[in-house]
Amino acid sequence: MSAAAGRPVVAVAGLPALLEPARELREACTTCGAALAPVDLVADAALPTGTVALVLGDGAPVPHAAALAANAALRDAVVAHHRAGRPIVAEGAGVALLAARLGEHPMWDVLPAAATPGRGGVPAAAELVAASDGPLHAAGERRVGRPSAAIALDVSAGASPAWTVGGRPEGWAAPGLHASLVVVPWTATRLARLLDAAGAAR
């Protein structure tokens, strides 16, 4: 828990590399009694105190790749968060931060993939079926999302994909991880599942 009136803290990466949190995510946090805490991926050396889950959204990380790679302190903090079993959600261009590298720059190396500039191989409007259980969805659930236009992935593994899109696997899912090039709108139900995956009392 955090100093924010005892509420669970959801850390959300924002400027300069990723977009500010969407209104839907802010509203979901209010509904679920969570505190939303911003993270500057270039300047901050640690996750906010009391972080129970980390969200990496869409944006434009490519121009900031060198600065992102130079922030070793935040990388170590995120890796420790992941190894402790606390959930991470990365959607759209945010997946690039979890990759082994973005172009020629080393990233956080949570996923067995390399990110490059460019659009991924998902249609502009995608109908999704959850392929595996994860911190946001149970296998078989259906959603609609949009892909990032900024990032493509060279995927070397993915035994537990997040989605199937037109019968093709996409992304990664695990008890503490949801990573996908496709961005799905936030709802209170979705955030409540993330908080439950984090073991956060509400």
Structure description:
- The chain is of the alpha/beta class and 202 residues long.
- The protein is 21% helix and 30% strand.
- The protein contains five helices and 15 strands.
- The strands form three sheets. A six-stranded mixed beta sheet has the order 2-1-3-4-14-13.
- Helix 1 (23-32) crosses helix 5 (188-197).
- The chain is globular.
- The model has no long low-confidence stretch (mean pLDDT 90).
Give a quick set of tags describing it.
globular; 202 residues; alpha/beta; 15 strands; five-stranded antiparallel sheet; single chain
The H/E string reads: EHEEHHEHEEEEEEEEEEEH
Structural class by secondary-structure content: alpha/beta
- Percentage of helical residues? 10-25%
Quote the average pLDDT. 90
Q: Based on DSSP secondary structure assignment, what is the total number of beta strands? A: 15
Number of helices: 5
Largest sheet: 6 strands, mixed
Explain briefly what this protein structure is:
The protein has 202 residues and is α/β, with parallel strands linked by helices. It has helices spanning 23-32, 65-70, 72-83, 95-98, 188-197, and strands at residues 9-13, 35-39, 51-56, 88-91, 101-102, 105-106, 113-117, 126-130, 142-147, 151-155, 163-165, 168-170, 172-174, 177-180, 182-183. A six-stranded mixed β-sheet has the order 2-1-3-4-14-13.
